[in-house]
Design a protein that fits this description.
Strand content: 15-25%
Largest sheet: 9 strands, mixed
Radius of gyration: 39 Å
Number of helices: 11
Amino acid sequence: MKDKRSSLLYVTACLAALLIVSLLVAGCTSNGNSAAVPATTTSSPTAALAAPTAPPAVAATTTSAATETLTLTGSTTVLPIAQAVADAYMQAHPEANIQVSGGGSGVGIQAIINQKVDIGMSSADVSAAQKAQDSNMNIITIAHDGIAIIVNPANTIQDISLAQVKSIYNGSVTSWSSIPGASVANSNNQIVVVGRDSSSGTRTYFDQVVMMNTNDTMSMHEDNSNGAVLQEVAQTPNAIGYISIGYLDNTVKALPIITTNGHVIAPSVATVKDKTYPIHRDLYMITNGKPTGLANDYINFLLSPAGQQIVVAQGYVALNS
């Protein structure tokens, strides 16, 4: 009996040993399979992360291209054209960064002389003295323009001669009652003379063509842009001013000019185009030497049919019209 019990215990121990060995073998097999899964899992994120490595290269290229900057400054007459062309160009070329600012033609020309900007803008001819400061100056005609004489809509005046304009701006005539057909109701009819500051190309041209290089009245208000003159005349019943035709709107009255032969010519794209309007001029962009790179592309776009359509859309006269 004792021997039987011993035998039974021996068999039980052997079975237990076999069971343990089986479990150990199964555990080892299971761990081996589990190890294979992490290997696959580890390689999969690596492969997934490998794909995004290309975009940084593209982003770097885009950032690098976007740093290509073009700067323009000067005439507030040319500014609307320059900004509209810049907007259209940048829409087609997102990598370009074109910065446009005003300040007046004198500022634009001096910035070119001092090599502070890529392109200067001017609404007046560059003087011989200015050219002498920069023998490498390259002047490009980009559009045509007219200068409109404007008054407040409250004024009953219908037209004016350049001689009358000159007499107002030199201070010889100070009352609207001295000008035939002119009157401002509920006022003393004293003329408020509004002009441009000394850096303005519009003033330079006006002083040469209308004032014939005589002095402006000391009482003239000197505004620093076409927009400022427009606003002051629109808000001042007794005022008179002058602005580019590209700035005209219904807040002011643009006066037709009585010419020396008795014709009455209103300022418009058509009369500037056929040069019957007496106060017309060219508009310019100026570079140091022949433009290259982005400056060249920008100017070529401006001079293209598409660019000249923008000139017309801004209220100016295209070169080929």
